[in-house]
Amino acid sequence: MKTYKIACIPGDGIGQEVVPAGQTVLAALAAAGSGFKFDFENFGWGGDWFRAHGEMMPAAGLDALRDKDAILFGSAGDPHIPDHITLWGLRLKICQGFDQYANVRPTRILPGIDAPLKRCQPADLDWVIVRENSEGEYSGVGGRVHQGQPIEAATDLSMMTRAGVERIMRYAFRLAQSRPRKLLTVVTKSNAQRHAMVMWDEIALQISKEFPDVQWDKELVDAATARMVNRPASLDTLVATNLHADILSDLAAALAGSLGIAPTANIDPERRYPSMFEPIHGSAFDIMGKGLANPVGTFWSCVMLLEHLGELDAARLLMQVIEQVTADPALHTRDLGGSASTQQVTQAVCERIAAAPAGRH
Ligand code: ATP
Questions:
Q1: Ligand 1 in contact with 281 (CB < 6 A)?
Q2: Is the pLDDT of residue 333 over 60?
Q3: Domain boundary pick from 199, 234, 255
Q4: Is 275 in the pocket of ligand 1 (CB under 6 A)?
Q5: What pLDDT sits at residue 258?
Q6: 3-state class (DSSP) for residue 140
């Protein structure tokens, strides 16, 4: 029987509640006769690790993850540590160290979820946002001079490479091609940013020729926000730069009804390194330790993890079960207007997995 080695990094805040919930659900799938099992290893990196060791994860931490089949991540963020330290010291260190250059964020309005777009049907909103995850505005290139002086200056350079843009465009076109509508929107800002974004557009056109069956268009990022709200059904797969997609995907999560539901995957498409799966929400210290955290974003991330491992039947089963659970208001956590606890939702998912007819997984 195939054993998958999974690294679990709960991180901070509610990450410490939702990642164990995700492990429980993955273990339930394995126990339900899916034909595989998991070997989990937990890593206690994050804010507490920083207080004890002065760093968010050990310097050689990547080596401990390198031979894993996948990473399940919770969140990094601590009210007492600056955000740029928690982000760069853990999550980005893994994303960049393992060249997980494609950040993939599916968005749908799941059954039973009250989403804010009143003029559209839930079926109108079915998107996947592909975010360039290795360079661009978050390349980390820049610096500060004359700190604290009146002449202080600071730069953050947006670094786009031809290789970096080609690979994310190719990934996005391929993903669009795999979806029923074969429709890709390339988000840009080449009217105002006349160097890197013009190259971005040129490369989109070049790569589009490799995918003649994919219909594609270009949209300025500002117009894309309005289109997401006003004409959601006109979009399917989107590709955008690191910064643009960061913003668009938070909008997408809000339009789908809750931050607690949305998943994301940081993928190394070449599979040289393990890919990392996580809910998009942060550490949410305000609700930490109270059993209020919605674990659905983590469960959906587990669906993506299973898809990445090639366990498509198990992925399909888990997604079906998640939709059954969101359809039941008695199983909504507080962010969805309900009163169910993290544990109750987790248990309901596990029970439905165990009860699924044999042969469905
Ligand atoms: P960070 O600083 O780590 O990004 P944050 O607390 O500033 O985290 P988020 O965690 O992204 O921000 O979420 C904002 C708010 O949304 C939280 O304070 C919390 O109330 C709510 N929230 C986020 N995720 C969940 C969840 N999974 N379940 C329930 N509520 C959530």
A1: yes
A2: yes
A3: 255
A4: no
A5: 86
A6: strand
Structural domain of residue 51, as residue ranges?
Answer: 1-103+262-361
Each residue's pLDDT tens digit, 90-108: 999 999 999 999 999 999 9
Distance 257 CA to ligand 1 centre (A): 14
Percent of the chain with pLDDT over 90: 92
The residues pairing with 154 across neighbouring beta strands, listed in sequence order, are 144
Alpha-carbon span 161 to 147, nearest angstrom: 30
Within a domain: residue 158? yes
pLDDT at residue 358 in the model:
62
By CB neighbour count within 10 A (0-12 exposed, 13-18 middle, 19+ buried), where does 325 fall?
Answer: buried
Q: DSSP character for 334?
A: G
pLDDT band at residue 164 under the 50/70/90 scheme: very high
Residue of minimum CA distance from atom 10 in ligand 1: 282
Question: If you average pLDDT over every residue of the chain, what do you get?
Answer: 95
Q: How far apart are CA 18 and CA 277, in angstroms?
A: 12
Q: Is 287 in the pocket of ligand 1 (CB under 6 A)?
A: yes
Within a domain: residue 111? no
Please name the helix (run of DSSP H) or strand (run of DSSP E) that holds residue 107, with its range, or none: strand 102-108
The tally of domains found in the chain comes to 2
pLDDT digits (tens, 9 = 90+) for 2-32: 999 999 999 999 999 999 999 999 999 999 9
Contacts of 116 by beta carbon, 8 Å cutoff, 6+ apart: 254, 255, 257
Predicted confidence at residue 357, as pLDDT, reads 77
The response to whether residue 46 sits with its C-beta less than 6 Å from ligand 1 reads: no
Q: Are residues 164 and 220 in the same domain?
A: yes
What contacts 280, CB < 8 A, 6 or more positions away?
105, 249, 250, 253, 259, 262, 263, 264, 297
DSSP state of 214: -
Supply the residue whose CA is at minimum distance from atom 14 of ligand 1: 284
- pLDDT above 70 for 359: no
- By three-state DSSP, how is residue 101 classified? coil
Last residue of some domain: 226, 255, 284? 255
